[in-house]
């Protein structure tokens, strides 16, 4: 059932919800609290990317395993990545989050080191493949490069590809964290070579269900085509900062059971 609101009423309703949920208290119950443990840009990027990668399933479990990653990496994620070698596998050998295990983590560390060493870091890589109003092709190019060195085939499933019709929820969430500057201290906004207008909403069960009830999304599957439809609707409401509505959709779904 579609919530009966005209577009101007819908924008007003969602803008109010953004103000309600896009606040520092949001951090307390969200995986974004893990990169908020750090102030150095590269530390935030590395642990943010790893935390976003495991951000599916129970939120408490995600946060606990994010903290475990921090401990494994000696509270210095970037230094740990840049100094990691296979002889240190024993430090990570016990890590597992659902289907993401220690061998996956070992490759992620190796690939991140490769990106920082040879491609100028994560921000530079996404910047190289940006398009004016979308970063979805950049995500595809990122995955291609991320797995361009020898890797376990099974590990590829942990990075989504929008060009294969994936909504790529976790990596879009990571990009929101890095790019969007919300002035309230939730999202980091440390990637100033990209803009919030290029971001896509992290589409999941909660945001998808709320978006359908509000008439922002008709497609039933939470896939790449649905993401394009939702992005179009959100850009109509705010072309400069469309993914601010992620806070509204998620908050309505999780905290208000809308």
What can you tell me about this protein's structure?
This protein is mainly α. The chain has one domain. It is 50% helix and 2% strand. It is built from 11 helices and 2 strands, in the order ααααββααααααα. The protein has a two-stranded antiparallel sheet. A hairpin with a 2-residue loop joins strand 1 (96-97) and strand 2. Helix 1 (7-21) crosses helix 11. The termini are close together. The mean pLDDT is 95.
Strand order of the largest sheet: 1-2
The chain-level mean pLDDT equals 95
Give the helix level as a range of percent.
40-55%
Q: What's the end-to-end separation, in Å? A: 12 Å
The H-and-E topology, N to C, reads as HHHHEEHHHHHHH
Q: Number of DSSP strands?
A: 2
Q: What amount of the residues lies in strands? A: under 5%
* Distinct helical segment count: 11
Characterize the quaternary organization of these chains.
single chain
Uncertain parts: none
Largest beta sheet, briefly?
A: 2 strands, antiparallel
By secondary-structure content and strand pairing, the structural class works out as mainly alpha
From the alpha-carbon coordinates, what is the Rg to the nearest angstrom?
18 Å
Shape: globular
Question: Please, how many domains?
Answer: 1
